[in-house]
Amino acid sequence: MNLQTILHSVDDFVKKEDIFQEEIVTYHYEGFCPKTKQKLTLPRTILSEKIALKLCAELDKNEIKMPKGKMLGVLIVKDNLGDLKVIKAFSGFWGGKKEIRGWVNQIPANSVITMAEKLTLQKLDQIKYQIIALENISVREEYNNLEQKFQQEWQSLKKIHQVRKQVRHELRNELKETIINNSNIEEKFKILEQESRKDDWQRRNLKHKWQEILQPLKDKVSLADQEIRNLKRQRKELSRQLQAQMQTAYSMTNFAGESLSVGSLLGKDFIPTGTGYCCAPKLLHYAATNNLIPIAMAEVWWGDTSPNGEKVNGHFYPACESRCQPLMGFLLSGLPSFEVRKSSANLPIIYEDDYLLVVNKPSGLLSVSGRGIDKFDCVEARFRQIPTAKSYNHLKTVHRLDQDTSGILILVKDEDTHLKMSQLFAAREVKKIYEAVVEGMVKEDRGIIDLPLWGNPRSRPCQEVNYQYGKPSVTHFRVIERRQEQTRLELIPITGRTHQLRVHCLQGLGMAIRGDRIYGKLEQNEDRLYLHAREIIFTHPHTQTIIHLTTKTPF
After folding, report:
1. Catalytic residue at 199?
2. Domain spans of the chain?
3. Does the keyword section mention Membrane (predicted)?
4. Which pLDDT tens digit goes with each residue over 283-297?
5. Alpha-carbon distance 160 to 225, whole Å?
């Protein structure tokens, strides 16, 4: 495949027979037309997802790498001849470049304003490096080290004086008891008082000595901090200028042939940084200005997991809520109505009755929707959108699997069943058996991992072992197979903490689960997390029969 070509044939990515067999919709890009207020949609289909993943595979094959992960987008379009084609885009910059041959260009801007924006960005960069330099001046480290040394000396002296004070207190009490029989008592009291004053003087002297050393350094640090505050004020003002420039700099065109600036589209003073730089706006603007009709679009994360853990390689994401979603109504305006086959859940059902629905969840799909539009696609949503499935309207998960974990997931069809199943889970009367592959050779054939887990608010979504704040967390493990410096394990969680098995393998066994992009090695380029909920055993809340469900481990 020639990645330097902008307009690709669909069969560059997939087999021809797949083109008309993969119309299942997994998500809808949507917005409201600013003029008619009509709801407009553009689907993400299985076909568009396959094309996006093939694009990622081609980049990997050509050993094209990014220091950090990158959002990539593909748009299936019809050209003037009615043939299906594919265009591709990347979000933001690629190695510092706005444009790369073969990829959709950045949305063009007014040249004069673009130059002003460039100068403003240069000034912002200068300020950033000035702040970094001031934050790392040598005197700051020198001051911190000496301040620490002073505190150590101060605490050490205080402890000595506290011991002396206690000794003097005891001596005074003894002297008071012998005051009638001893004529030298008053002199001894004076000596104790002198010792007390001597300790006070020693503390004051230590403070004064260190103040003479620290104050000049502290003054220099304070001056640097003041300069940092001034620079941050300048940065804030320049950012305001940049926002004002952006309001008129970038114009977008829709399929009705209308062009409007980003500022007039959003209708607000503050425009989020990067607006118009994401894949979806770039793809739709390019299609609208090149007489291409969109059919389906997909945006996929490629590369290392994002620092906050929210973006994972090979996972698909909708239009971002702050920058892209507000533009979708305008960008989709003028498109013809699509008659695309309604989405089915497209998930394997392994058990169903009047009360329960049990599915085999794939890796990469959420159990329930999260906060934000990019967390919408999930097991619950996929079943609820099936128009003929009335029994799925109130479907609700009774427990959860991590997005990266595959396997058995139980959903209930009514509130009564939800309550009863929740009670079973709370009472630990549901046995869950997982299978995992860890990076390394586990020595013990079986064992128990008992490590308390805590979700540190400063490092979410990561969990950590913490004996002070952590909740009791217990996992039983058994070795299934050792092979090629990897161990296949059977894991039985007794408790059900977030990321329990992932952290217990890492901290309890000293080995991360293969493909774990949160707790494992950053350089791993696995297609998934090697953790699967293989079996589940519980008593049916209505029939009281034992339900034992098993799935095949997909790795």
Report:
1. no
2. 8-108+253-332, 131-245, 349-550
3. no
4. 999 999 999 999 999
5. 36
